[in-house]
Amino acid sequence: MSNERNVNGGNSKKEQLEQFTTDDRNQKLTTNQGVKVSEDEFSLKAGERGPTLMEDFHFREKMTHFDHERIPERIVHARGFAAHGEFQVYESMKEFTKAGFLQDPGKTTPVFVRFSTVAGSRGSGELARDARGFATKFYTEEGNYDLVGNNIPVFFIQDAMKFPDFVHAVKPEPHNEMPQAASAHDTFWDFVANNQESAHMVMWTMSDRAIPRSFRMMEGFGVHTFRFVNEAGKSHFVKFHWKPVLGTHSVVWDEAQKINGKDPDFHRRDLWEAIENGDYPEFELGVQMVPEEDEFRFDFDILDPTKLWPEEDVPVKLIGKMTLNRNVDNVFAETEQVAFHPGHVVPGIDFSNDPLLQGRLFSYTDTQLIRLGGPNFHELPINRPVCPFHNNQRDGYGRQTINRGPVSYHKNSLAQNTPATSTEAEGGYKHYEEKVEGHKIRARSESFKDHFSQATLFWNSMSDAEKEHMIQAFSFELGKVESKSVQQQVVDMFANVSTELARGFAKAIGAELPQEQSNSVTKASPALSQENTTHSPKTRKVAVIVGDGFKDGEVMAILEDLKNEGLQPEVVSDQLGKVMGRDKAELEVQHTFLTADSVLFDAVYIIGGKEEDKAFYKKATLFIYEAFSHYKAIGATEEGRKLLNAAEMDKSPGVIIEDDKKSFVPKFVDAIASHRHWEREVV
């Protein structure tokens, strides 16, 4: 190996790779016991589409080691924030499931929801380009039910065997622990290029979905295919959706990077303040259901976690609403100690043979054992069910229950064989009796091998602005990759999705342009575009730039009207204290140009003031220009009009200048509700 050093005194990238792979180079893969491994792509299943088998010692060893790599914070989803709330079903779902909390519209079920980023540590910024966790614990009368999902409906891999590999690749590179909370580096994109099942999820993470405006404005998905089972034992395959009442909205990438510097707690602060203000976040629970007899009628495998069910083919039925109405009292005791697990189900909800889900059913309990110090994490207040629980488990770290008597086994006569099991009619959980047969095999079903058609479907479904943002995202991410080979591999891979996309970012990173390819996938799913979402002005934050000498009556009336529309105007000026109008009315200043920034607001209303100087307007101009470059709504009255005229913004889309208050307010509110004015990109 070369001993030459680079100009910074460290080894070159090539030398680092040689150094850090020497021990394993040209060696055969083995278990920790030294047993040679014949297959490291697939878990052991009963038939190609069957369930994962518990005897798969290689999978269990690999996953157990991965689950225990970090203490005490979560390996993934470490950066999170949570809130309490309640869920209420709209109508009885008895036809489809016997789950008790989905039966009576007159009853509410307590919930606890934790939102999170995936890749970063607890101290990382919240506006990283990343998937977001969306985990909900329902405290039902039949026991706790955990719907553990993300804000993206698909995942990078198809089999849980590869989960440690994916997370190792996306996490900071181990030789220098960089970069934090970012996928823009060599190992992640090397993984992508060499594991092409990731194509669909990568499209989502390169889209605006990966930089949401807030937790309150992002969708949630259960990702996997589950089952509903009714009293008669009839099964429907089901996918779960959370639909935000405020719609699904995002920031732009330049804005996201600046927010991480201006306020790395931006998302948690937004959630906390909304609840404290009484603007309770609301999400509707939707389900897509497929009768068991229709399992094979689609052109994709419904058990494949890298595939979604297009809403135009399988409509989403909205069945209830969740309202988050109480902040946590203690972040550690609640947000950090909450333990979710997709295997925490109640009668009427069951599993499919999705191989990623099957692996998670093992992994989550294993993770909690080390992270929360033992087997009694269910007794922590945030995890404790609201219904009684009784069993023969005893002792262990963190035990809080004081069990009396000598009997701790089943069956017994000394305690009249109690606690006793329950029949299905008594509410006992019964697994769905699916017929399973097949050879014990490490393989992947042929139906899982289409990696690009739904990635193309996603691309076809985007608006022109969203497509441009994705090209820019790929350009940024791959522009950070040092390996030219990896860059070219990714270009060639995504040419299978869209030549337009691949050529767009290939040019930006100096890679070889792929050949033009015809793509047979022409279908689009309009539901996938964030342009087709609810647009509401409610709870949007408006920076009100105002100085001494403003026109009292008109301004005060406009601010009151904005509040009545559900907006949150906050005054920004050059110093804290109060600004005074011409007729001595006063406004309390909440932010200065130093402590606030346009990226922390959804819109800007500039008023100015007759008594302010050039320094004030210079700061205001910079503030407004940035908001304009991020396509936000801008309104102006009085001196603010002159500023926008001078900046030549006055005739741009989303810029509202009106003399008449009655005309200004509704136009400005509509402009804010539109979220962004992408037309500026082509003006």
Automatic annotation (TrEMBL):
Named cofactor requirement(s): heme
Cross-link for 3'-histidyl-3-tyrosine (His-Tyr), residue positions: H341-Y364
Pfam families in alphabetical order: Catalase, Catalase-rel, Catalase_C
Positions contributing to heme binding: R74, R114, F163, R360, Y364, R371
Enzyme category, top tier: oxidoreductase
Bias kind Polar residues: ranges: 1-11
Gene3D superfamilies cross-referenced by the UniProt entry: 1.20.1370.20, 3.40.50.880, Catalase core domain
InterPro entries linked to this entry: Catalase (IPR018028), Catalase_AS (IPR024708), Catalase_clade2 (IPR024712), Catalase_clade2_helical (IPR043156), Catalase_core (IPR011614), Catalase_haem_BS (IPR002226), Catalase_immune_responsive (IPR010582), Catalase_large_C (IPR041399)
Residues covered by region (Disordered): 1-35, 515-536
Keywords: Heme, Hydrogen peroxide, Iron, Metal-binding, Oxidoreductase, Peroxidase
GO BP annotations, alphabetical order: hydrogen peroxide catabolic process; response to oxidative stress
Reaction(s) catalysed by this chain's protein: 2 H2O2 = O2 + 2 H2O
Positions with biased composition (Basic and acidic residues): 12-27
Assigned EC number: 1.11.1.6
SUPFAM superfamilies given in the database record: Class I glutamine amidotransferase-like, Heme-dependent catalase-like
A GO molecular-function annotation: catalase activity
GO cellular component, one term: cytosol
Active site feature: H77, N150
Domain Catalase core: 30-418
Purpose: Decomposes hydrogen peroxide into water and oxygen; serves to protect cells from the toxic effects of hydrogen peroxide.
Family assignment from sequence similarity: Belongs to the catalase family. HPII subfamily.
Name recorded for this polypeptide: Catalase
